[in-house]
Design goal:
With about 375 residues, this protein is α/β, with parallel strands linked by helices. The chain is built from eleven helices and 13 strands. Helix 1 crosses helix 6, helix 2 crosses helix 3 and helix 3 packs parallel to helix 4.
């Protein structure tokens, strides 16, 4: 055909985790370019029905699947030439550990893809995935990040041609980043935001969801992406404190007005206990608590660090969008005065622009952080 949803591109694409945050964007783009899509799912099929409209009639197919049932995975990939694995969970459950989701499942999918003759495989990791992740307060660091790194090795061992993406925090409608930080459960009882080192020693580089999706889609048709690993980070690099101050400022919440305040996480045992209890709760881990647990606090407390050896999304032709371009729209639902009618446009508060961190400032922050717990004591540094 001429291209578009009512054509067929010639690609049959299986997307694991298509009903997730990033998966929904991928499903829409695949339908838009005329690919036939297969969406494996577990549990009730009703949660998948909204994806039916991403493609034309007969082009969107659903397939029941369990990650511990190899035959169901084999059926899901048997007719595909492209497979995208977006399965992920920031918390453990009684049925699936980090090892199950981040190592065993990706390795099984990669092995069965190789057996089925799949041409392209895309796997999702994390920007801070390391064999020995940086430690903030948990002994041994984040198990999530450690298993993500081991998952990369497992996928490479079974499918060396796989394309791996290492994204930072991904934000957008329905994410677990903005929803997490604007959640009642993330704040302490005084409505403060507890952050490690008050967020002043942690540097973040979040990426807009659509930019990540564009990078994934471009990689499917780029021969140079075969067997490559890409670091997917946004163009704005700033401290965690500056990032949250900007996000909350866009919703008319400021320290001066008494509606936003950053506190010290390590002096807030109640927040630690709450994260532990929520992380071990069998209910609401995704849609209510937005994947909140102690490991999430640990991951949030370390900086997004590039290894300096991998290409980034610009090498895939992605034009990255800045926080100032996209964040105001994304946080608009949380505006404290969203229903307030200003008499004049100039009365509407304007958030201060985000304050970026320079290389020299980041070097000093890393030196300070290297001092250990003494760096958290106010007034000593």
């Amino acid at each position: 055909g001429r291209g578009g949803r009512s054509s067929f591109s010639g690609d049959v694409v299986t997307v694991f985790g298509a009903n997730g945050f990033v998966g929904r964007g991928i499903a829409n783009r695949l339908g838009k370019n005329g690919s036939q899509t297969i969406f494996p799912y577990r549990g009730e099929h009703y949660k998948m029905l909204r994806l039916k409209v991403t493609g034309d009639l007969g082009q969107v197919l659903f397939c029941p699947m369990e990650i511990k049932d190899e035959d169901s995975i084999r059926r899901a990939v048997s007719h595909s030439n492209i497979v995208i694995n977006l399965i992920g969970r920031g918390v453990e459950t009684s049925n699936f550990s980090y090892e199950d989701v981040n190592i065993t499942a990706p390795q099984t999918i990669a092995r069965l893809c190789k057996e089925a003759g799949v041409k392209r495989l895309v796997h999702m990791s994390h920007i801070n995935a390391r064999e020995e992740p940086e430690k903030a307060f948990l002994p041994g660091g984040s198990r999530f990040l450690k298993t993500k790194f081991m998952g990369e090795l497992a996928v490479r061992s079974e499918f060396p041609e796989a394309t791996i993406f290492r994204p930072s925090d991904v934000y957008g409608q329905g994410d677990s980043f903005l929803n997490h930080y604007f959640s009642y459960w993330r704040k302490n009882m005084s409505k403060g935001m507890p952050l490690f080192g008050k967020g002043e020693m942690t540097v973040k580089q979040p990426i807009w969801m659509s930019d990540l999706v564009t990078g994934i889609m471009n990689s499917l048709y780029d021969p140079a992406a075969i067997g490559e690993t890409y670091e997917a980070v946004g163009p704005d690099r700033l401290t965690q404190a500056a990032l949250l101050t900007y996000m909350y400022g866009l919703t008319t919440r400021t320290k001066e007005a008494g509606t936003f305040n950053i506190t010290e996480l390590m002096m807030d045992p109640a927040s630690m206990i709450r994260a532990f209890l929520i992380g071990n709760s069998p209910f609401g881990t995704v849609n209510t608590f937005h994947q909140y647990n102690l490991d999430r606090l640990e991951r949030d407390s370390i900086s997004d660090m590039s290894e300096g050896v991998y290409p980034d999304l610009s090498d895939l032709g992605v034009k990255l969008h800045t926080l100032e371009e996209k964040m105001p729209w994304e946080v608009a639902p949380w505006d404290l005065y969203s229903y307030f009618q200003y008499e004049r446009p100039e009365e509407k508060p304007v958030a201060a622009p985000p304050v970026h961190v320079t290389m020299e400032q980041e070097r000093k922050l890393n030196q300070k952080r290297g001092l250990g717990p003494i760096a958290l004591v106010p007034g000593l540094m």
